Amino acid sequence: MDAGKSLEPSVSIRSLRLDFGAVRVLRDLDLDIGQGEFLVLLGSSGCGKSTLLNCIAGLLEPTDGQIFIGGRNVTWEEPAQRGIGMVFQSYALYPQMTVRGNLSFGLQNARVARDEIERRVVKAAEMLQIVPLLDRKPAALSGGQRQRVAIGRALVRDVDVFLFDEPLSNLDAKLRADLRVELKRLHDRLGNTMIYVTHDQVEAMTLADRIAVMRGGAIEQLGSPDEIYNGPQTKYVADFIGSPSMNFLDGTISGGVFRAGDVAVALDRYAFRGKAAPDGRAWFGIRPEHVATGDAARGLPFTAEVPCDLVEPMGADTLVWATLAGQPFRIRMDGGARVRTGDRLAVGFDPARASVFDAGSELRV
Amino acid sequence: MADVMTSAALQAGPRGRRPRRAFSTSNIVIYGILGLVSLYYLLPLWVMVMTSLKGMPEIRLGNIFAPPVEVTFEPWVKAWAEACTGLNCDGLSRGFWNSVQILIPSVLLSIAVASVNGYALVNWKFKGSEVFFTCLIFGAFIPYQVMLYPIVILLREMGLYGTLWGLVLVHTVFGMPILTLLFRNYFASLPEELFKAARVDGAGFWGIYFRVMLPMSLPIFVVAIILQVTGIWNDFLFGVVYTKPELYPMTVQLNNIVNSVQGVKEYNVNMAATLLTGLVPLVIYFASGKLFVRGIAAGAVKG
Amino acid sequence: MAAARRPNALLRNPAAKIAAIPMILAVLFVFVGGTIWTVVYSFTGSRLLPRTNWVGLDQYERLWGTSRWLVAIENLLIFGTLSLIFTIGIGFLLAVLMDQKIRFEDTFRTIMLYPFALSFVVTGLVWQWILNPQFGVQHIVRDLGWETFTFDPLNDPDIVLYGLLIAALWQGTGFVMCLMLAGLRGIDDEIWKAARVDGIPKWKTYLFIVVPMMRPVFITTLVIVASGIVRLYDLVVAQTSGGPGNASQVPAMYVYDYMFQAQNLGQGFAASTMMLLSVLIVLIPWAYLEFGGKKGRGRG
Asked: Do A109 and C199 touch (CB under 8 A)?
C-alpha cells in the first residue's frame, strides 16, 4: 500500500458516459485525481461539470464506464458507501434540525458510537468556528454560516474525498472571497482530495491544484492553473479563462509571420507545438494584460499605434477598447493611466506570450 | 508518474448502470398499491356505465360489476327525457338546460369581477384593500349555512329571489374568495416593471387591465374557467335554496329523481341520470388535464 | 396653490375603487354583514320570518337539548376525525408513492383525481348504488360463497358513517394527494441528495426531514379539508338523506331543515352559528400561525 499511495489516484473515472434520453451529457470521460489533490471542474452552465460530480457521488447513474474511489470500484455503490462527503450550492441543511442535529444525523444513522459522534462534531465545529451555533436552527444562520455547517456535515463523515457543487454561488461577493480563502486553508490542513465544481474562474484559479475545463460533456483541457492560463490548448479555453477575455485577431500565417490586415506579427519567438509554423488561417490570441503601452511598449518584438475607441476605468486598472488590424483589441492598463477616448496609444507585446490557434480546429498550434 | 491506471482501459467489475430487476420488491409494492387504489377509484365509474347500459331484469338477476349482456340505451333516453320529479316527467333535460343557463352568466360574471379585484388588489392598493381581501379569504372558510338566510333577504329585496339571476349573483359572490386569490397571486407574479412602464406611458386603470394584463393572463383565465364551471355545475345547496322547482339545476333535479320515494326504483335510469350529470365536469376534467390540477392547487391558500 | 394640492385620498384612483365595489359590497353585506346578522338573529325567537323578539340563549338551550342536533354533532366529530386522518394520511402516502419517479404518473393522477371533479350528489348516488344491499357489494360477496357476509352501511345506523366515509375518501383523497405531491415536489432536490450522501434511508428521510419541512402544506390542507367537512351537506343528502332514522344527520342538514322546512329560523340561526364557531376553532389558530407573525412568515 505504501508504494501505491503516491501512484494510485484517489478518484479515477474511466470512459464515463451519461445519456439523458438522446442527449449525451458526458462523453467517454477519463480523469484521474491524485491523493490530496484539489481539482476544480470549471465550465459554463450545461457543460456537464455538475453531472460529472453527481456521478462521482453516486447521485446519478452513468450509462457506461467506471468510477474508482480509493482504488475501489464504486460504480454500483450507494453514495453513503463511497467514502465521500458533499457540499451543495443551496446548502441543503435539514431545516427542522439544529446545527448539531445536521452534523450528527448521518452518523447516528450509521450507528456510530455516541461519544465518537460528539468528538467528531466538536472537532468539525471548532475547525469551522461554528461552535457557538451548534444549538441553532439553519433558519437563524446567515448564508456564510449555513455553508460552514454544510461543510461541517461533510467533515464529520471522516472521509477522504470531498465533493463541492458550486458551494459559494449563493453567497455575496465578499463572503465568497472569505470562504474561498477558508476552503483553501481547510484543504491545506486536511490534505483530503477535493473535487470542486464552479463556473467562477477566480475560484478555479485560486483554489485548484489542477483545473479541468469542461465543454459539451468532455474535458477540454486538464492542467494546473498556470498551464490553463498561459497555455490554453483550445481557443475555447483561452476565451473562457481570463477577465477581460483574450484578444483574438483573425488572420493568416505564412512563413512564420501572422498577418491580419496591415498588421504583421513575426512568430519566431512563439513556441509552436510542431517544429515549424503551419501556414493557413489562424487566430492570434493575446491577453489584454500582456499588452504593454507607452514607454514599456518600446523595444518589444511587436509594436503598433492604435486609436482608443472607449476607456473603461475600473479602479485598480483601466480597460481600453482599441482597434488593431480593423478588429477590436482590448488593452488592460494601470488604473492610474491617463487615457481618453480618441487618443492614440503606442502598444506592444511579446508574441512568446501569445496563443495561436488554427482557425478550423481551434486547437493551439 | 508512471501511471498504470491512466491507460483508459476499463477494468473488470461493475460498470455503467447498476443492473436492476424490472420487478424489484419496491416496484411491485409501489405499482401494486397504485394499481389497487386505481381500481377503487375507477370502480364507481365502471359500475355507473355498466348499470346504465343494462335493462332492469338483468340488473335484478346479475352482478353490478358485470358488463351488460344486452346493451341498451333506453335508460339514457329515459333519464334525459322522461324521468319524473314530482309531477314533472320531462326528464333531466330541464335541469341540464337550467344548469347551462345558470352556468354561463355565473362563470363570466364571477371571473370578470374576480379578475378585476385581483388586479386592483395587486396594482392599485388603496387604504383598507388588504382588510377586505382578508375578510374575503376568511369568507371562503365560513360555512355557507351562516350566510344562507341573509342572502335570501337580500335577494328578496332586489326582487331576485327564486330566479336564475339571483342564483347567478350568489355564485358570483361565493366564487369571489378563491378566484380573487387566484388572480391576485397570478398578477402579483407578473413583473411590477410592466405595470410601472404602462403607467409611465399614461395608461389608466382599465387601459392597463385590458391592454397589458389581460393578454398576459390567458392561462390563468382558463384555470379560473375550469374551476368555476366544475364548481358551479356541481353546486347543490345554493340551487336548492335560491331557486324554485322549475328552475332547479341539474344536481338538485338528479337528487330528486333518484331519491324520490314514489314508484319503482329504476336503477339503470338512475345511473344514467347520475352519469349525465357528471358528464360536464368529467369532460372538462379530462380535457383540461394539468390545468385542473393547477386550479385546485390554487385552493391551497398561498399568500 | 389650490391646484397643486394633493387630491383627497378617497378620490385618488377612482377607477380602482369603483372596480373594487363588488368585492366591498360582497364583504360588507354577505361575508361580514350576513354572518353578523345570523349570529345576532340567533338570539331571537324568529320562526317563519326573522323578528327581533329577543330570547337570549333560549335557541341554544333548545338546540343542545335536541337529540337530532346532538346526533349531528357526534356524527360530525366521528366522521370529521376519521375523514381528516384518512384523507390526509392516504393522500400523503399516495403522494409519496407518486413521487417515486414512477411511470404513468399522469395516468395515475388522472384516475385518482377525477372523482374530485364530480358533484357530491353524483358521488353520493353512485356509492348508494354500490352499497345497495340487494344488488351491490354485499350481494356480490354473498354470491361468491360467503353467505353470511353483511355490509349494509346504508341501512345500519351503527356503520352508516363508514358508508359515507368510503364515498368521501373516494372523492377527496385525490385532491389531498395533489396538494401533498405539490408539497413534496417543492422540496429542494439537494436535500434529498444530502440525505443520500449521509446514508439516511428513504423512509427516515421522509419521516424526519421531509414531513417536518412540509408542515405548512399539512396545516393548509388540514384547514381546507376541515372546513369542507363542517359544511358537509350534499353528500349526506344524496347518499343517505340523513338516515337510517337520524343516524347520519349532520349539522348542515339540521340548519337547512330548520330554516327552510320547519319554519323555525331561530333554531337554524343558532345551529349555523355553532357551525361557524366550530370552523373558527380551526381557523383562528391557523390564521394566527400563518399570518400572525405579520412579516415573519416562514414561507409564503
From this structure: yes
